Amino acid sequence: MDNLDYGIIGNCRSAALISKNGAIDWCCLPEFDSPSVFANLLDDEIGGSFEFVLDASYTSEQFYDSDTAILITKFTSGQDCFELHDFMPRYHKDDGTYNSPPELIRYLKLISGAPKFKVIYNPKLEYALGKTTSFLKKDFIASLTHDVKYDTVFLYTSFDKKKVLHGEELTLTENGFFLLAYNEKIFLPNTEKAFLELERTRIYWLDWSQKTPSYKKFDKEIKRSALTLKLLSYDKTGAVLAAATTSLPETIGEVRNWDYRFCWIRDASMVIKVVSQLGHKNVAKRYLQFIIDLIPDKDEKLQIMYGINKEKKLTEETLGHLKGYKGSKPVRIGNAAYEQLQNDIYGILMDVIYEMISQFSIGIQNGEELWGITKGIVWIVEKHWQEADKGIWEFRSEDRHFTFSKVLCWTAIDRAIKVAEMLDKQHKIEQWKPLEAKIRKDIMDHAWNEEKQAFTQSYGSSHMDASVLLMESYGFIDAKDPKFVSTVLAVEQDLSNDGLLYRYKNEDDFGEPSSSFTICTFWFINSLFKIGQEEKALKHFEQLLSYSNHLGLFSEDIDFKTKRLLGNFPQAYSHLALIECAINFSKKDSEEKVLEFIGE
Fold first, then answer.
1. Residue 198 belongs to a domain with what CATH number?
2. pLDDT for position 396
């Protein structure tokens, strides 16, 4: 498989990636960041997978059950045809809580004939570090490892377990199921119960999707992206993951391979903003609580990222025994970037707090907590905004005065003033306004490059950087300001490659980037739209949409030459930016229709 032709299924506790031909090549249980059960994605020899083998007469097609996270792979050979419905159960229980067990169901629906297939069931627990052995038991197949650490999973099925375990041919004569569970089941599953789980899960996702508004343009893409963002949210704490995978390379054969199964404050905050806009307020509220829970001390510095269960230490390790996706080593788990200083996160967090207070009726207790955090953020920014940092792209070597970080320090103070205005804290408004003006002047004086006629990557630099496009989004500069317009054109001139954007082109710790960071192209499209080049923006947007995989999903990066998807997958950041662009085009369309209607 040359592209990331995978679908994602999940239940807001964990997720699995399923290939175009129905193979589970990535799945971690019981949670997103647990060690893998199947990691064929990272090593097609020893990683482990759960796949169906059919003879060459079968063709397959794959699609989502409309407006749900249930993935259907349909296999057809003349008269013989069946569908594989893959999902992780999720639905409301009678007591109002969710049923989201650490398990995965593969429901086989017979369409016609008597299809024949074999199953390769090959779990490799604990990232395939030790040997996993599978045993035939009375009610299930048990797989366990104890070489490195003890772990087990259980497979229940309506098919002959011995034939399944030995990869012998099976014939589908009626609907059937496979249920992979992290815990041994107290009540034995059967096909009827598996179907009931499927129907309950379908209803849950249909209800959830129903809350997403319908848009005139790109409605299908917005809904699929919203569902993908929901699949990357972790119910237990409210965290939102950057992606469901680790170590999928930004460029094949290179070493930019990171673990993204964590909650980056920057990504997640942007997710919350967009998801709230789509009407999914609960996701937003729970994420805000996740943040509040992480800030116990008034002077504690905020990390750029946390574990999904609020872990603060995310030690990076290398799994040397895995050969990596398409041979791209190393495979990493954990992420050393958690120790980096990135000054932009305070602005991002403050922006979210401002959004929340504007959008929701915040109770007194929560309001007092948020006001306390606001004052703490201003105190930290005032002390540290003049320091250099690692920046949005997490340069691992020298610190610089990155324009994006400075703009977000300004954003922190600007939003804090707005919050103070809402809460009628006059004394603080007067105290903070000079700081806001001072940071703004500093950026205007030092980030602008006269020769380039643009705001550049860092103070004194001539390098362009896609992140400066966000100056307008955060309200630092007006879209029609000549300085912003010429910055957009300079970014296009220096960073665009066949309609796709580099993040930056100067060398970083690993050389010059050779793939496009998907979100940067979305930012560029948004900026073109804002400066009035709407037709050009729409053309670029439609071209970018054509690079998604067969299910409309995007990863972190796109190869400039081949347009194949690269990097961790699916990427929350990419889908978030897609939604933002699509809503702009859709709103524009609606506004034009209204004007037409009233005769202007």
1. 2.70.98.50
2. 62
What mean pLDDT is predicted for residues 518-540? 97
**CATH number of the domain bearing residue 464:** 1.50.10.10
What average pLDDT does range 457-465 have in this prediction?
95
User: Which residues are 547's β-sheet partners?
Assistant: none
Query: Looking only at Cα atoms, what is the longest distance across the chain?
Result: 78
3-state secondary structure labels for all residues of 167-180: CCCEECCCCEEEEE
Any idea what the Cα angle at residue 118 is, between residues 116 and 121, rounded to 5°?
150
pTM: 0.94
pLDDT digits (tens, 9 = 90+) for 426-435: 999 999 999 9
Tell me the C-alpha to C-alpha distance, in Å, between residue 521 and each of 261, 438, 471.
23, 32, 15
Alpha helices in 393-481 (DSSP H): 403-422, 426-446, 470-473
User: Can you give the residue range of the structural domain that contains 152?
Assistant: 6-210
Residues 176 and 247 grouped into a single domain: no
Q: Which amino acid is at 326?
A: K
Phi, psi values for residue 404, rounded to 5°:
-60, -45
3-state secondary structure of 192: helix
Final residue in a domain of this structure, among 210, 241, 262: 210
- Of 408, 277, 295, nearest in space to 348 by CA: 408
Instruction: Tell me which residue has tokens 């013989």.
Output: 80
**What is each CA distance from 591 to 219, 579, 585, in whole angstroms?**
16, 18, 10
Q: Are residues 93 and 232 in the same domain?
A: no
Q: Are residues 149 and 277 in the same domain?
A: no
Q: What is the pLDDT of residue 296?
A: 61
The C-alpha atoms of residue 132 and residue 433 are separated, in whole angstroms, by: 62
Last residue of a domain, one of 154, 177, 210: 210
Total domains, the chain = 2
pLDDT-derived band at 297 (thresholds 50, 70, 90) equals: low
* 234 in the same domain as 191: no
Q: 172 with 45, same domain?
A: yes
Question: By the 8 A CB rule, do 489 and 469 touch?
Answer: no
Please state, in angstroms and rounded to a whole number, the distance separating the CA atoms of residues 509 and 507. 7
Within 10 angstroms of residue 422's Cβ, the number of other Cβ atoms is 13
Asked whether residue 75 is domain-assigned, the answer is yes
Q: Which residues contact 565 (CB under 8 A, 6 or more apart)?
A: 3, 4, 547, 548, 549, 554, 555, 557, 558, 559
